[in-house]
Amino acid sequence: MKTGLKTAPPGLRFARNVVLKGLGLFIMINLVFALSDPLLRLGRLSAYNQLFPGRLRLPYGDQPDRDHNLSLFQLEAMFASHELAAGPKPDGEYRVLLIGDSATWGFLLSPGETLAASLNRSGISLPGHRQARFYNLGYPTMSLTKDLLILSFALRYQPDLIVWLITLESFPIEQQLDSPLLQHNPQTVRALIADYRLCLDAHDSRFVEEAWPGRTLIGQRRALADLLRLQLYGILWSATGVDQYIPDDFTPRMEDLQADQEFHGLQPPHLHPEDLALEVLSAGMKMTGEIPILLVNEPVFISHGKNSDIRYNFYYPRWAYDEYRQIMARISETKGWRYFDYWDAIPASEFTNTAIHVSPQGAAAFANRLAGVIEQQINATP
Amino acid sequence: MTLTHILALAALASGYNLLSGRRNLLCHRTWILLAVSLAGIYWLQPATPLRNFDFWFPTLTIALAAGTWAVVRSRETSASREDLLAGLLILGIILGVGATRYLGPLCCLTASRPPQFWVVLLVVGGLAGLLAVLARCAGSRRILPYAFTLLIVGLFIVLKSEPMGSAAGAWLRRAGGQSADLATAFDLRWLGFSYLAFRLLHALRDYQAGRLPACSLAEFTTYALFLPSYTAGPIDRYQHFVAELRGKGSGPNNPIAGVEEVDQARPASMPQDLAQGAQRLLTGLVKKFVLADSLALIALSGETAAQIASPGWMWVVLYAYALRIYFDFAGYTDIALGLGRLFGIQLPENFTNPYFKTNLAQFWNSWHITLTQWFRAYFFNPLTRALRTTHSSIPTWATVLLGQLGTMLLIGLWHGSDANFAAWGLWHGLGLFVQNRWTGWIGLRLGRPVSHPATKRWLAIGGWFLTFHYVTLGWVWFALPDVGLSWTVFRRLVGLP
Predict the structure, then answer these.
(1) What angle, rounded to 10 degrees, do the helices at B3-23 and B311-342 form?
(2) How far apart are CA A15 and CA B398, in angstroms?
(3) Mean residue pLDDT across chain A
(4) Fewer CB within 10 Å of terminal CB in chain A, N or C?
(5) What φ, ψ does residue A293 adopt, rounded to 5°?
């Protein structure tokens, strides 16, 4: 064999050497990457809030090339790109974090038209010349556990108040682990399940597990490219202020509805508290400790079209939604949660493409309603 | 070419390179490259909305190449046994690809199932018959070369013009039993036609001028369809390519005028080809897939142009576009040159640091060099020569202006028939004219070249700055879909609303 290689023509010997050295380097680099796991540290390195202004909402993008934005799953990088990570909390700032679904994030709204932005414009006055500043930490998937995950990261940023916007679609148990953000952060979600004894399956098959090859440079190439893309999109974020493509035309929310009474496999007449992930709300309360949480049932579209006697909208049969509101009111009272129900606060004409997404006017109107309550709550807090 | 195509081709070329030294495959290089290129063009052709055209476009490509060979082959020699073998190989590969229709899931060479085999037989038989007739009629430098030139230019215009492309798409849809309602110019996604057209037109013109050496069917078809340069150039000259093919090439920058018979190939350079080819390939991959694709995220586009109001950011996205288009195109060229080198062929250089040049003429001598040389050889020089000889009353400046505007306008329209591409071409034509006049004027005023080193350096820096920004501003026309938006961007770049 040895003689065979020695007598191989120069071309083959050269190729063999190149291949062997290349393979060696390739294996070494991948091993070092897998052992050092540098992605989290890299995620914290961000040009946002340094070279570019921080984003007004967490990165999310269905069409990256048009949105100048992308969906990624590394929360460190997502928060590092947010304006919340701009630096220490300024003196005199009363920091209010808004968590919730796509309605809070502001689907089909520009960053300056979201609920948080509208609340910032409402000029809430606080004693001692403190200024209330609202931060948008909504994220476009419907799951209370996803909100809890975001909350667990958000607590690093010294909030004074949390406004948790909820809707029934975020409550079903089987819905809890449906968000890709949760599925791609299995370790953190498992820690939440364990710490707060949540009745969720820590070994749910939807979790994206990273076997050893997945931790190598090759396995993490997509995550690495996402980090790079997020930084590059910072240029267009700075240049345009656009983080979501808003089409001129979109399919409007459904007015005529199916005559379907079912809600996530449940039939009327009863929705039980056990059917809902109320324990996730409890976990949130426990997690924030002294920091107050306002639970706000967000406005939903109320249809007057076909079968609107059976359903309020695409998401909710009337019986289920009515039961949910009663359960929330009852449990909140029992547990001492500060709960505000704004389910019908916005006229039907202000809903856009779904039963929870609102127009800029709708967001501003909701902010006006909410601002008064928030101001009252802040001033009532010792 | 996608990354998968490139890597598969690189593996094939490396295998060929390694084995060629040991098994004396060099003797059969033309045949191997011909077979790889013939099968490869089917493999690279993307799916089209027109039924079966991912099979017919490559077949038509082959027919055009073979037809052009039949026109330009030497009339002194009759078709040889080698040509007959090449014809059989071509037919065998077309029919072989057509037969993959019956391989079911194994069918992987074309984007969709090839047409019914009897249709393939019928069409290929017809084309082969036509080729035989052409080969018999060949030898006249009058009618057939002009007819083929017209055919190629006509196809070119149809493919580049949106209304004609849509009309052709609708006609082909109807002919194929599809609804014509959805026809668009995008239907005619004929991969590699632009570059094929340049190679064939070069061969036809050189044949008419008596500059084309005798060529075999195998060599000519390999030249026309050589896979590494098939989709994005460079546009090699036949004389240079065939010398490389026969193992007597003179490198990438020195195409030769004629070719002599070669009895010995060059096995000693194989390791060098492998090393340099791989290095060039890797450089190209990084330029294209890392740099260009990253810059593409932030480069000027129709959307960003409408969204950005600040002059500073507009300049940033414009610079990003300038770098992106360079890395994209130069990256593809590096990939082509690397793959070519792995196959033992040194293709001509296409980019030599264009953004570091100190005047516009130098820029165009180092940006897409082979395209510029093509237009210079087959349009600019004949046009200016004709103007000087037949219209001697036209002043020199007007001849230069007409030549440069015409050449650059055609280069612009080659990219597409939009007004913006025409504006881009005219922008450069005008720039070249002004530079030409300025150089002549300043030369007369100064009397002798500047010799002071510091002055020369500052002049060079100033020249580079002006050239780079003139070219970069020109990309505003090229990058955007309409003239109005381009004008808005120009206004915003200088701070106007």
Answers:
(1) 30
(2) 57
(3) 92
(4) C
(5) -120, 130
- A304, HSE (Cβ side, Cα atoms, 13 Å): 3
Query: How many CB pairs lie under 8 A apart between chains A and B?
Result: 58
Mean pLDDT in residue range B264-278? 69
Tens of pLDDT, residue by residue over B25-35, are: 666 889 999 99
Min Cα distance B242 → chain A (Å) is 24
Q: Please tell me what DSSP assigns to residue A323.
A: H
DSSP letters of B343-412?
A: TT--PPP--S-GGG-SSHHHHHTTSSHHHHHHHIIIIIHHHHHHHHHH-TTS-HHHHHHHHHHHHHHHHH
Name the percent of chain A lying above pLDDT 70.
96
pLDDT in tens, A295-350: 999 999 999 999 999 999 999 999 999 999 999 999 999 999 999 999 999 999 99
- Just give the CATH number of A46-179+221-380: 3.40.50.1110
Look up residue A299 and give its two tokens.
């406005």
CA distance B465 to B454: 16
The residue in chain A having the minimum alpha-carbon distance to the alpha carbon of residue B308 is A240
B residues 224-253 closer than 8 Å to A (CB): none
Q: Which of B386, B388, B426 is nearest to B404 (CA)?
A: B426
Gap from A58 CA to chain B (nearest CA, Å): 19
B313 interfaces chain A, CB cutoff of 8 Å: yes
What is the rounded radius of gyration, in angstroms, for the C-alpha atoms of chain A? 24
In angstroms, the CA A210 to CA A39 distance is: 13
Bridge-partner residues for A166, per DSSP? A297
Distances (CA, A) of B41 to A348, B35, B217, B474: 57, 10, 17, 34
How many other CB atoms sit within 10 Å of the CB of residue B463? 16
Closest CA to A146 of A31, A345, A332, A283: A283
DSSP string across A233-262? HHHHHHHH---S---S--PPPP-S------
| Average pLDDT for B250-259 | 45
B271: its two tokens:
């390791």
Does the pLDDT at position A2 exceed 50?
no
Q: Which amino acid is at A266?
A: L
Q: In A, which residues are within 8 Å of B274 by CB distance?
A: 11, 14-15
Q: Which residues of A touch B317 (CB under 8 A)?
A: 235-236, 239
Nearest CA distance, A14 vs chain B (angstrom): 7
* ipTM tops the 0.95 cut: no
Tokens for B70, please give them: 């039949």
Tell me the mean pLDDT in the region B349-355: 96
